Amino acid sequence: MASSKQLDLLFHALGHRTRRALLARLSRRPATVTELARPFAMSLPAVSRHIRVLERARLVRRTVDGRVHHCAPNFAPLHTVEAWLRHYRRFWEGQLAALARYTANAAESA
Amino acid sequence: MASSKQLDLLFHALGHRTRRALLARLSRRPATVTELARPFAMSLPAVSRHIRVLERARLVRRTVDGRVHHCAPNFAPLHTVEAWLRHYRRFWEGQLAALARYTANAAESA
User: Fold this and answer.
1) Angstroms from A66 CA to nearest CA on chain B
2) Residues 6 or more apart from B31 whose CB is under 8 A from it?
3) Across A66-102, where does the E strand assignment appear?
4) What's the whole-number average pLDDT of chain B?
5) Rounded CA gap, A110 and A108, in Å?
6) How much is the pTM?
7) Residue A40 or B10, more confident
8) Which residues of A touch B73 (CB under 8 A)?
9) For B29-64, how does the pLDDT look when each residue is reduced to its tens digit (9 = 90+)?
10) What are phi and psi of B43, to 5 degrees?
11) Pairwise CA distance, residues B93 & A97, whole Å
């Protein structure tokens, strides 16, 4: 069972479009902070702060080689988010099924 | 496809253990803000602020009846979070499979 702290860090890390975009970029291949900053038109310190939030959630691993910071993604913690979501799936599936029935009935009686 | 804004609001709403606990409580049955505040030993304004964050993410619907605020859960938006996660599943499944192989090999050579 994931700790509350772990889930707080994960959801917080995912709650910003730039951090999700950084993860998407890293899913293609590892990159340096400089390479990550380029397409976002952001300063290195700004990108570095986002990376730090991802690191705290263990979604990114940073290794420092002199002045070059290498970032590699780590998707394993997302498994924890999925496990949390799984608990609620039956609720939203129930809601979506009810909506589909409602729409079908409305179409029939139109 | 979910908008970035929608995902920002959803992940932000889920990124606090109190808000996840409020959702868990509401998954059992709808409740008033007063009923929600009780087990958390929080002030009504504090709980109300958390509810507002959940409302912005459309995870809770609040109806006001005089001074009583009724809250009902809405789990449908979680479907959006799951769709986002799905894209990364192959990555973490790959990582977990590699870990399992490594552990099995280590056990054999021990």
Assistant:
1) 28
2) B25, B70, B71
3) 68-73
4) 91
5) 6
6) 0.87
7) B10
8) 91
9) 999 999 999 988 889 999 999 999 999 999 999 999
10) -70, 155
11) 29
Residues A85, B80: Cα–Cα separation, whole Å: 11
Which tokens sit at B79? 């479907």
- Residue B5, φ and ψ in degrees, nearest 5: -60, -45
Distance (Å) from the alpha carbon of A2 to chain B's nearest alpha carbon: 12
Q: How confident is the model at residue A95 (pLDDT cuts 50, 70, 90)?
A: confident
Between chains, do A20 and B27 touch, taking CB under 8 Å as contact? Answer: no
Q: Report CA dihedral (B84, B90, B95, B97) to the nearest 10 degrees.
A: 140
> What residue has token string 């994960």?
A10
Nearest C-alpha in A relative to B74: A92
Contact A37, A47 (CB under 8 A): yes
